[in-house]
Design brief:
By secondary structure, the protein is mainly alpha-helical. The chain has 6 helices and 2 strands, in the order H-E-H-H-E-H-H-H. The longest helix has 28 residues, at 117-144.
Length: 145
């Protein structure tokens, strides 16, 4: 599936660019990072994974709002980021975003075992880098307009 098909299926919709929603999504992403650190410190590793993914999702969503795209699917958000930003977001971070999307689904709806401390530590590092890269993209691209 690609972005065009996501738009055709209406799991991505074209809207007007919305910088206020983009900024709000970044604020949510940052607050979820703070929450993640507290959950991790308390050794709630599965909840940490959920919070890490939520933070990454909102960071990714900030790019969509900037671009004038509304998501109706977590998978479509990944498809969009993968297709439109793979030249600016390192591949391992896009892959981590997708893996966390799958882990989130498994934690919420499946039978996933507990996430390990080491796995969550690595995901936190990915989240911090993902958020920094997206903030840099937003800063650079909103300067141009």
């Amino acid at each position: 599936m690609d972005v065009k098909e996501c738009i055709r299926k209406r799991i991505l919709r074209e809207i007007s660019s919305d910088i206020k929603k983009s900024e709000s999504s970044i604020k949510i992403a940052k607050s979820k990072l703070i929450e993640t650190r507290k959950l991790f410190a308390s050794e709630f590793f599965n909840n940490s994974v959920l919070s890490i993914y939520t933070s990454m999702f909102h960071a990714a969503r900030a790019l969509l709002y900037k671009d004038g795209i509304q998501e109706k699917s977590h998978y479509a958000t990944y498809i969009y980021i993968n297709e439109k930003y793979s030249d600016r977001i390192p591949r391992q971070l896009i892959n981590a975003f997708n893996l966390l999307r799958e882990d989130r689904h498994e934690i919420l709806y499946g039978f996933q075992q507990n996430s390990s401390r080491e796995e969550v530590e690595n995901f936190i590092l990915d989240l911090e880098e993902f958020l920094a890269v997206i903030e840099k993209i937003l800063k650079n691209e909103t300067k141009k307009t």
